[in-house]
TrEMBL record:
Residues 1-70 form the DAGKc domain. This is DAGKc domain-containing protein. Its cofactor is Mg(2+). PANTHER family: LIPID KINASE YEGS, SPHINGOSINE KINASE. It comes from Pseudolysinimonas kribbensis. It holds the Pfam family DAGK_cat. Belongs to the diacylglycerol/lipid kinase family. Coiled coil: none annotated. The keyword Hydrolase does not apply.
Length: 260
């Protein structure tokens, strides 16, 4: 089945195909096209993407399944492929101006990020990883991802793999402007440059000082309760406010047509 559009469109089609033997072929036509980017697919030539749909090979990848708890007590379940979370990314997506996205594509999110960063409030959460002990934390942003690369050579989740049966999770806890600068430096320089610079670059990245405002961990299941409602996003689409969510990996549940 061919899915023409961005990550939100692909997510909707993949949700229907999850667990089936029908492969999905991507015709990237959205703002970020993160799934296609992380699978090293063609982004700019529609004819080549169509050729890939009929001449590529099949690859099984993981999907995420998430149950969102709404402030009114209702709950709903969705599947996703790339990233899910609250905080900076959700506010960025909510703040993105549609007319700017049509003109400049993913660069519209630069403007949206600038406005989202003005919100420095943290939210207190209770989190349980893989059914373990419940812990509390105060964070600005939490993102769980099946893929790690963003547009502009930004590697948000450097160890994320799309078929390893795990989510990579990052939390951001900046304290003022310096905290944001440290986070941006870690993501763009260490993750985006050093880790892609061969064995020497990876060695230098391993020697880099940890940034307290940034924490990574991995999980198969994640249960989060929030002290107040927060905007939430799935694969680049706004999904309204949540007061909590339960997330799990569904390993190898989607077949994607990729380059041979």
């Amino acid at each position: 089945m061919l899915a023409a559009g961005g990550d939100g469109t692909v997510r909707a089609v993949a949700e229907a195909l999850r667990g089936s033997d029908v492969a999905i072929a991507l015709l990237p036509a959205g703002t970020g096209n993160l799934l296609a980017r992380n699978l090293d697919m063609i982004l700019t030539h529609l004819a080549d993407s169509v050729d890939l749909a009929f001449g590529g090979t099949d690859r099984r990848i993981d999907m995420g399944v998430i149950e969102l708890d709404r402030p009114d007590g209702s709950a709903e379940e969705h599947a996703f492929l790339v990233m899910a979370g609250f905080g900076l990314d959700a506010k960025m997506i909510a703040n993105a101006r549609p007319e700017l996205k049509k003109r400049v594509g993913w660069l519209a999110y630069v403007d949206a990020i600038a406005r989202a960063l003005r919100d420095t409030d943290r939210v207190r959460m209770r989190v349980r990883v893989d059914g373990g002990e419940e812990r509390t934390a105060s964070v600005h942003t939490l993102i769980a991802g099946n893929c790690g690369a963003l547009p502009g050579n930004v590697l948000l989740l450097p160890d994320a793999e799309i078929d390893d049966g795990l989510f990579d999770v990052v939390t951001l806890r900046p304290e003022g402007l310096l905290g944001w600068v440290q986070i941006w430096g870690k993501i763009t320089w260490e993750n985006g440059v050093l880790r892609r610079g061969g064995s020497v670059g990876r060695k230098l990245a391993g020697m880099a000082r940890e940034v307290r405002a940034l924490r990574y961990y991995r999980a198969r299941e994640l249960d989060v309760r929030l002290e107040r409602p927060e905007e939430f996003e799935l694969d680049g689409d706004p999904f309204g406010e949540v007061i909590g969510f339960r997330l799990r990996v569904d390993p190898g549940s989607l077949i994607v047509r990729v380059p041979a």
